[in-house]
Amino acid sequence: MNKTLIMTPGPTSVRENVRLARAKETTNPDIDEKFYEFYKETCHKLGIFLNTNNEVRILSGEGILGLEAACASLTERGDRVLIIENGIFGEGFGDFVKIYGGEPFYFRNNRKRKVDIEELKSFLEKDSNFKYATIVHCDTPSGVLNDIDKICPILKEKGILTVVDSVAGMGGEELQVDNWKIDIALGASQKCLSAPPGLTFLSISEDAFQSMENRKNPIASFYCNLLVWKDYYKNKWFPYTPPISDIIGLDKAVDNLLNEKNIIERHDKIASATRAAIVSAGLKIHIEEGYSNTVTVIDVPHGINDKKIIKYMLDNYGVMITGSFGYLEGRVLRIGHMGENATVEKVSYTLFALQKALEHYGYTFYKDIVSIFFERI
């Protein structure tokens, strides 16, 4: 291939029609009423994509902005917040809670398995006095996927607001925001939507907005304040100038998703075939259960350096994968098969390059990994 094939778990490749949309002539989004209509329509499309009637807002900033904005807007000093974690990003919510004066309580789980529903129920029977709870849909450092369809209704029954980071899930995994009782669902442009990084978007329930409005103290931020966005359309006022070209590109990316009827099935087939090929060829998937449709994480074989594998694939085959970070640094390799990357052609070529790189450094495969992939797809 003549150019780098980006097969990381986000950012992903960007389709040509999205790139061309971003090149369109722009206007002054602060005063052009036509842009307010365009922004509103893009938010409406995102609501369809998320299966929600809740308000949706697009913010200027990478996905982490959405995570912090949710915590900044809901957290008051002394608030007890439940952090449901089985991964690096799940745990990271606690840092945002502390920044805004809250007290995080961690429900910790085996990081190689999805959150245990029965253990969570038992935990909540003993203590459910939390303003809100956070959980990650797909924690990309390890690739573990959580059953938010079961977890969020349990939390809501206890009167706990639910905040879900689905940055690496939505578009590749089923997501039913309203049916699953998600108060704030967080997404970003650069994962399954396959738009460039730089935007985060959130669906916000009326319960979440009421919690923000009933605060005793003002939200301790402006840029991370979700409440200032509530009446933007009625007032024809944006809190800050929107990045118009990015939003035009996002709108086209959402159109691409809405026009594809079997997007979840496509991701599921690619992910299942990828895992089957990896295991049958002799490699080991890092997690034990809770496999995601969007990223596969492989244990690095003993005696092999992850950075050398990554460099060899890039230098010799033009394929970019990545390792991980935190406690997983140096221990795993991550392949992203999300959005524009979740195709037979791209994933099969990536597996071919992976096999060649590992063989170069002395690893012996049981079987040809690409052949197995094509058998299972």
UniProtKB/TrEMBL annotation:
Coiled coil: none annotated. Residues 31-322 form the Aminotransferase class V domain. InterPro entries: Aminotrans_V_dom (IPR000192), Aminotrans_V_PyrdxlP_BS (IPR020578), PyrdxlP-dep_Trfase (IPR015424), PyrdxlP-dep_Trfase_major (IPR015421), PyrdxlP-dep_Trfase_small (IPR015422), SP_NH2Trfase/AEP_transaminase (IPR024169). Its cofactor is pyridoxal 5'-phosphate. Keywords: Aminotransferase, Pyridoxal phosphate, Pyruvate, Transferase. One of its GO terms (molecular function) is L-serine-pyruvate transaminase activity. The modification N6-(pyridoxal phosphate)lysine is found at residue 191. One of its GO terms (biological process) is glycine biosynthetic process, by transamination of glyoxylate. Substrate binds at residue 334. Its EC number is 2.6.1.51. Belongs to the class-V pyridoxal-phosphate-dependent aminotransferase family. This is Class V aminotransferase.
